[in-house]
Amino acid sequence: MTNSSSVSEFLLLAFADTRELQLLHFALFLGIYLAALLGNGLILTAVACDHCIHTPMYFFLLNLALLDTGSISTTVPKATANSLWDTRAISYEGCAAQVLFFLFFFGAEFYLLTIMAYDRYVAICKPLHYGSLLSSRVCAQMAAAAWGSGFLYAVLHTANTFSLPFCQGNAVDQFFCEIPQILKLSCSDGYLREVWILLFSISLALVWFVFIVLYYVQIFKAVLRMPSEQGRHKAFSTCLPHLAVVSLFLSTVMFAYLKPLSLSSPTLNLVVSFLYSVVPPAVNPLIYSMRNQVLKDAVWKFLQYMLLQINNVL
């Protein structure tokens, strides 16, 4: 990834020019980051420690919490530090690492959301085959495929992007290193190769989106045919959080990358990137715990255990 004709560092877009607003952004980002770590950390610990919920749905939820923690930890700490220390700089290597890890977690999460839709489809439409179609081995293989696909996706884009020479300055119009903004700094026709790869990635994402839609069409058909109102309520309570997470994830990403050029502006780009890179990892734990009594009970059981341990120590 080393490129002798490249700049040695990049300048990220600042949220504000005045010191007071910079400190306000620092406090806001720090609060969101700590809330995301707390929410995802509670889900991770509760699912890992409670053997009663060691099922495919919660196994995939654990993976989602891991990805969300990694995703928000890639972008927010640097933006928080920049606001605190009144700087915009990020090293060339740091920018490349940020792109690599963000795309890794971002790509793996999209594949995982598709797998989670398949999990709900099998649970509701083919309950008698659930144990065989989603055995422990199959779940582990599917999760590994999501993580592996995200890693390959990230390596491909990062290596291709940072093999380009940059001669259009070093100011990135974004609060973190984002490929479309970095490509604007390239002075080589090689950036067209990365554009085609990005277009291919968008096409592939649309294919996975179609799969998610088809799964949910079958799910809603099956739920509406259920004679028991209690059964319908239980099915919806497990599907709606996932559907809300998918909708939040895809709507913000699609608006960020498919919005008309006439709507583009540094301020709007900053807000949209915040919505798709920071909001979902912070909000997902809240969405999943809001209607899931089993998860609430597991978290509460863990908190009670921790309080008991603290009281014993004191």
TrEMBL record:
Give the bilayer topology: Multi-pass membrane protein
Residues crossing the lipid bilayer are: 23-45, 57-76, 96-118, 138-156, 195-217, 238-258, 270-288
Matching entries from Gene3D superfamilies are given as: Rhodopsin 7-helix transmembrane proteins
Q: Does Cell membrane count among this protein's keywords? A: yes
Q: Which domain of life is it from?
A: Eukaryota
Instruction: Supply one GO CC term from the record.
Output: plasma membrane
Translocase listed as a keyword = no
Predominantly, its location class is membrane
InterPro entries given for it? GPCR_Rhodpsn, GPCR_Rhodpsn_7TM, Olfact_rcpt, Olfactory_GPCR
What is any Pfam family matched here? Answer: 7tm_4
Localized where?
Cell membrane
List, for all copies, the residue spans of the domain called G-protein coupled receptors family 1 profile.
39-288
What the entry lists under CDD domains is as follows: 7tmA_OR14-like (cd15227)
Q: Which controlled-vocabulary keywords does the entry list?
A: Cell membrane, G-protein coupled receptor, Membrane, Olfaction, Receptor, Sensory transduction, Transducer, Transmembrane, Transmembrane helix
One annotated GO molecular function is:
G protein-coupled receptor activity
The entry's function note states: Odorant receptor.
For this chain, the family text in UniProt reads: Belongs to the G-protein coupled receptor 1 family.
* Protein name, as recorded: Olfactory receptor
Tell me which species this is from. Answer: Anas zonorhyncha
